[in-house]
Design brief:
The chain is α+β, with helices and mostly antiparallel strands and 537 residues long. The protein folds into 4 domains: 93 residues, RNA polymerase II/Efflux pump adaptor protein, barrel-sandwich hybrid domain (OB fold (Dihydrolipoamide Acetyltransferase, E2P), Beta Barrel), CATH 2.40.50.100; 124 residues, OB fold (Dihydrolipoamide Acetyltransferase, E2P) (Beta Barrel), CATH 2.40.50.100; 53 residues, Dihydrolipoamide Transferase; 215 residues, 2-Layer Sandwich (Chloramphenicol Acetyltransferase). Helix content is 24%, strand content 27%. The strands form 8 sheets. The protein has a 6-stranded mixed sheet. Strands 14-9-11-12-16 form a 5-stranded antiparallel sheet, with no helix packed on it. α8 crosses α10. About 14% of the residues have low confidence.
């Protein structure tokens, strides 16, 4: 089992694309592996015959567990299999030992689950997720569940994601009702054969954490479902396309060619609803009628109740999971990090001229915010102390630059990240920001696209806000607030003339950044913005 991300500790085999006895060529796709962040195709780096499969479809195993054996046809591999089994048992014993010792009351728990019964727990859908909210149940107790069916929509601290079952059976129990929140690993549901008595199973999980009290239960529940927001890939004669497993199955059942469907998900991913709503005639008409602006989304309308004058009226809106997390993290940031703010005024005349020239190039669109992002990335390379993180033991200075761009969405605020921003051109930054912001507003961002920032930029200039102070996005040490460009009288060469200026405010964590360090960073940033040609050097 490969380690396909820095945080991956185990993986689930979603689909085997080869079977025992098949000839394998170097580069062939062996299987689709679900990680903590995505469903990814796993290529073979060897040629030969697939002699053994160690992890079946739907099963989960730790990184470095025996996934498969490739060799010469007819080769004796019994020694390899037995050796790997012993190593796997040692890994399992180490992984489950803490749960056993922490739960002396396990004597009252069943030694194993009834045959065919699986316990679905609240998944950890991002590195920062500690609890989730069930937004919608798409199945009810008693419903038949097929492999690939969407069980529920789960709201995390970053997005609302579909949750797909990798088991078939009957939904016997729902542990978290719509609108309720629960910690990761809490009992979400129980699936099994119709009529199975599951009373007592949920009670055998610890209240509040749903940590299984016996190792066998932990093994059963660890391999049952993943979020379908992670894109899966398939190959057709028309090329490479993206579709969820459920969408692929429905298309197969209906005899629909996926290459004819326009996906509405992230990266053009085809979803269940795309397949169900597809008709060949509608597709042809849509393609003929849609201009290049078919990605545009109409502004949502909110119905407001009529309130007669003179009457008191209130409305209570339940806090979403995102709003709870925003409140928690920003409160922690403001109350733990000693903030101070530095403000500088930047002349924007040359930036405006440069932007006009850049945007005169066909198929190029660069905003002032893109220019600020680029300038910030270059300034951070010269002042790496701004690009740092605080911990009680040490200050970590990041020499790579990953800028987070704050994006307002309907439920709150998300911060998609531009990895290695300093190496991106202005046009690349512009295209990436438009893509990320668009998918953020439609809740199509992957959790991995909102992780790893080293510095954050928040821009309210488009709302006419000329100056403001932001709260630091932990664990960053600083955040830049960008105001609107204002036309006003300025003094140039002793004369009062009309000019264009913009206010920048840098909020710093005084534990990591001293005032002079922050001021020097702003001076460098000002030089880049006021002389955009220097960003090309």
């Amino acid at each position: 089992m490969p380690r396909l991300s820095d945080t991956m500790t185990e993986g689930t085999v979603a689909t085997w694309l080869k079977k025992v006895g098949d000839t394998i060529k170097e580069g062939d796709i062996l299987a689709e592996i679900e990680t903590d962040k995505a469903t990814m195709e796993f290529e073979s780096f060897n040629s030969g015959t697939l002699l053994y499969i160690g992890i079946k479809e739907g099963e989960t195993a730790a990184v470095d567990s025996l996934l498969a054996i490739i060799g010469n046809e007819g080769e004796d591999i019994s020694g390899l299999i037995s050796g790997a089994a012993e190593a796997t048992q040692e890994v399992k014993a180490e992984a489950t030992a803490p749960n056993v010792t922490e739960a002396p009351a396990a004597a009252s728990a069943p030694a194993s689950l009834p045959k065919g019964v699986v316990v679905v727990t609240m998944p950890r859908l991002s590195d920062t997720m500690t609890e989730g909210t069930v937004a919608t149940w798409l199945k009810k107790v008693g419903d038949e569940v097929k492999e690939g069916d969407i069980l529920a929509e789960i709201e995390t601290d970053k997005a609302t994601m579909e949750f797909e079952s990798f088991n078939a059976g009957t939904l016997l129990f729902i542990g978290i009702n719509e609108g309720e929140s629960a910690p990761v690993d809490s009992v979400l549901a129980i699936i099994g054969p119709a009529g199975t008595d599951v009373s007592g199973i949920a009670e055998n999980y610890k209240k509040g954490g749903a940590e299984p009290v016996t190792a066998p239960v932990a093994t059963e529940q660890s391999a049952i479902a993943v979020p379908t927001v992670e894109a899966t890939q398939t190959t057709t004669d028309g090329g490479r396309i993206f579709a969820s497993p459920l969408a692929k199955q429905i298309a197969k059942d209906k005899g629909i060619n996926l290459s004819q469907i326009k996906g509405s998900g992230e990266n053009g991913r085809i979803t269940k609803s795309d397949v169900e709503n597809f008709t060949p005639l509608a597709a042809a008409t849509s393609q003929a009628a849609q201009p290049a602006t078919d990605n545009a989304q109409p502004a949502p309308t909110v119905a407001k109740p009529f309130v007669p004058a003179g009457e008191i009226a209130t409305e209570e809106i339940k806090n979403s999971q995102m709003r709870k997390i925003i409140a928690k993290r920003l409160s922690e940031s403001l109350f733990t990090a000693p903030h101070y703010n530095l403000v500088i005024e930047v002349t924007m005349d040359e930036a405006m001229k440069s932007r006009a020239v850049i945007n005169s190039v066909p198929d190029t669109k660069v905003s002032f915010n893109d220019m600020v992002i680029k300038a910030s990335a270059l300034a951070l390379k010269k002042h790496p102390k701004i690009n740092s993180q605080w911990s009680a033991e040490a200050i970590t200075i990041n020499y790579h630059v990953n800028i987070g761009v704050a994006v307002a969405v309907e439920d709150g605020l998300v911060v998609p990240v531009l990895p290695f921003t300093d190496g991106m051109s202005l046009s690349q930054i512009g295209a990436s920001v438009r893509d990320l912001a668009g998918r953020a507003k439609s809740k199509k961002l992957l959790p991995s696209e909102m992780e790893g920032s080293t510095f954050t930029i928040s821009n309210l200039g488009m709302f006419g806000i000329t100056e403001f102070n932001s709260i630091i996005n932990q664990p960053n040490s600083a955040i830049l607030s960008v105001g609107a460009i204002v036309e006003k009288p300025v003094v140039k060469n002793g004369q009062i003339v009309v000019g264009n200026t913009m206010m920048l405010s840098l909020a710093c964590d005084h534990r990591t950044i001293d005032g002079a360090t922050g001021a020097q960073f702003l001076q460098t940033l000002k030089q880049y913005i006021e002389n955009p040609v220097t960003m090309l050097a």
